[in-house]
Amino acid sequence: PARQTTKGEPEPGMWVVKVGGPAYRIGMGGGAASSRADDGIRVEDKTKAALDFNAVQRGDAEMENKMNRVIRACVELGDANPIVSIHDQGAGGNGNVLKEICEPLGAKLEVRAINSGDHTLSVLELWGAEYQENCALLLRPEHVGLFKEICEREQSPCCFLGQVSGDGRLILHDELDGSDPVDLPLDLVLGELPQRTFSSDRRPNALKPLVLPAGLG
């Protein structure tokens, strides 16, 4: 039904959840890399493209289907749908989608709770990798069990990163050393920004009538 397309608002205590495939060293700066005009390097007087393979994103069709089945199962529950809000992960990876999903209330998250397929990933890589087939969503605490059951049935990984805080800050904690690599007031990046006005003038087109050569047709 149409009401399943309307996202709810974050509330303190809601769980911030990721569903889908694990993080890898892929899509590092992928959104920015795809927009660069020229990254050529001079090799033997010839310009060759400098390929940044870590920026290349890799698809995983099997994982995408598993994740989509989880979302579909939730939607098909109708008014009992446990998903309050959901965002697809894209450019910027976790560093973008997680701040959007909890805006404007903020959240405190644990970076080591991110599902990772590579134990050598740094905090920066876990935060910025644009790995595919992954979504962030909000759940109320009473729906955690149901959501886990659906993910287990569909064999789709899910991880619970933390909860909405209500203080307007996105805090990323690292339990390995007790640090907070990210402590960001959301109003600085997602607040009310001044709108830019663009002006355009219409120019009349002086079109000439179509004249066909004599004898044509």
From TrEMBL:
Single GO BP term: purine nucleotide biosynthetic process
Single GO MF annotation: phosphoribosylformylglycinamidine synthase activity
Coiled coil spans: none
GO cellular component assignments: cytoplasm
InterPro entries: PurM-like_C_dom, PurM-like_C_sf
Superkingdom assignment: Eukaryota
Domain called PurM-like C-terminal: residue spans: 11-173
Pfam families: AIRS_C
PANTHER family the UniProt entry points to: PHOSPHORIBOSYLFORMYLGLYCINAMIDINE SYNTHASE
Protein's UniProt name: PurM-like C-terminal domain-containing protein
Species name: Coccolithus braarudii
